[in-house]
Amino acid sequence: MKWARSILPPVVVGVLAIVAWELTVSLGRVAPFILPAPSAIWRELVAQRQNVWEAALASGTNALIGLAAGAVLGVLAAMVASRFKPLTEVSIPFAAVLNALPIIALAPILNNMFESTSSIPRRLVTAIIVFFPVFVNTLRGLREVDPIHRELMHTYAASGWTFARKVRLPGALPYVFTGLRQASSLAVIAAVVAEYFGGLQTGLGSRITSAAAFTAYPRAWAFVVGACLLGLVFYLTTLLLERLTMPWRTRLIA
Amino acid sequence: MSAVVVSSVTKTFNIGRTDEVTALSEVDLTVGDGEFVSLIGPSGCGKSTLLRLIADLIEPSTGTVTVAGKGAGQARKEQAYGIAFQQAGLFEWRTVLRNVELPLELRGMGKAERKARAEEMLTLVGLEDFGGHYPAQLSGGMQQRVAIARALAVQPPLLLMDEPFGALDEMTRERLQSELLGICAKTGTSTVFVTHSISEAVFLSDRVVVMSARPGRITASVTVDLPSRDDAGRQSPPFFDKITEVRQALRGTPLKTVS
């Protein structure tokens, strides 16, 4: 009952929005190249489901590998940076510069560095984009240690490594996941958009550009829906992982 | 052998700077084996500083601190004391049981053994049914009891407590005071207890050490010998007499001004 009450409002709003969209397009005689009707997109999505699925798998693989690599690097870099205070002060502006860089714009340059059939440039772009939120959030988490915990570990004569393993890392987990949650959606966006700049034509991004080039707008939108679903899957998986990794938090909500 | 010997200890913070402050000046304190000593005084009298010196969380500027016959640093490394602070300071990602296990874990005790010991400690503080809970699921008083169980887990000869009941309501406080006395009697632990509640100090202690501020030093030592340490003890005339004595020592007025 409680579950229905929290699920129902967004579903109702969503259905109403789609109905309004459909009516606007059909009654307002909106040209399909401006905005196709949801029914047309749905027809294309059903017709192209095999293609959408395969394209989503290709983009999803790139996003996943990029996400994993960027996240691991981000956490490791944060651990190193938090260990040495001067490094923290140097690394934060450095990371900010990295973040200000339009990394997607690197895609064509990276494409030229590798073979045209290589997926590496896309995974690289994704990894670089993922790195920043994971690094910054993890670093903050690692640095925020309860002073009492610090003193307690001191009275237990715990070594620096023990302290990092037993206190710093678990204490930083909520922050790591804040970064991962942002990064998971970013990873899909990065992997899809990086495909706009040539290279392999297997992913959602290249399917969207080629459908648009052929003025097949409902089909382009069908792949956009696929990208949207892929992003959602990444985000929800991260949320699930967060719940599983930090049972003490889920119990709080329950 | 005395549990704690502090001899002519001075502690100055920020030496050589404009904000230099002498927290403790020429302090001598001896805590006998099994003795319960409270440190009481106004804010800034250095009572917490003194406790932290004994715990080797900070080092004295001059003088020496000996715990169980060893230097404070050595005693800390051997986990010769357990410590509890005003905040429970539990690790939220560990269950209650695993919180109590932590000091044992760091000592390299085996899994089964430390689990048994932690369960025993939780029984001691009356929380044997809560081992699987996470700290955030417990009330403040229960969390503080877990912190005490954790401090006792290594069965240290010395217990150091820095206003452990300061953040609790009066009812919980009095119950935990009685529990603490029971535990100390059972385990024979010597205790140094920092508080700014006069009644708490008198009720718990064999001796109340009164301190004054700027510079922090010991001004009086009041030996307390109550007929009993229970609710009847809280009502007894000697209890109120000792409260008056400690209060006067805190104010620095002579004892005989009360007619």
Descriptive account of the structure:
The complex is a heterodimer of chains A (254) and B (259). With 254 residues, chain A is an all-alpha fold. Chain A has one domain: MetI-like fold (Orthogonal Bundle), CATH 1.10.3720. Helices cover 82% and strands 0% of the residues of chain A. The model of chain A has no long low-confidence stretch (mean pLDDT 86). By secondary structure, chain B is α/β, with parallel strands linked by helices. Chain B has 2 domains: 175 residues, P-loop containing nucleotide triphosphate hydrolases (Rossmann fold, 3-Layer(aba) Sandwich); 67 residues, no CATH class. Helix content of chain B is 37%, strand content 24%. In chain B, the strands form 2 sheets. Chain B has a 6-stranded mixed sheet with strand order 6-7-8-3-9-10, with helices on both faces. In chain B, a hairpin with a 2-residue loop joins strand 4 and strand 5. The longest helix of chain B has 18 residues. Chains A and B meet through helix 7, helix 8 and helix 11 of A and helix 3 of B.
Mean pLDDT of chain B: 85
Helix content of chain B: 25-40%
The CATH topology of chain A comes to MetI-like fold
Q: Largest interface, per-chain counts? A: A-B, 21 and 22 residues
Write the layout of secondary structure elements.
The complex is a heterodimer of chains A (254) and B (259).
Chain A: H1 2-27, H2 38-47, H3 49-83, H4 85-100, H5 106-113, H6 120-143, H7 147-155, H8 160-194, H9 204-213, H10 217-245, H11 247-253
Chain B: E1 4-13, E2 21-31, E3 36-40, H1 47-54, E4 62-67, E5 70-71, H2 72-77, E6 81-84, H3 96-106, H4 111-124, H5 140-152, E7 158-162, H6 170-187, E8 190-195, H7 198-204, E9 207-212, E10 217-223, H8 231-235, H9 237-251
Parallel strand pairs in B: 3-8, 3-9, 6-7, 7-8
Antiparallel strand pairs in B: 1-2, 1-4, 4-5, 9-10
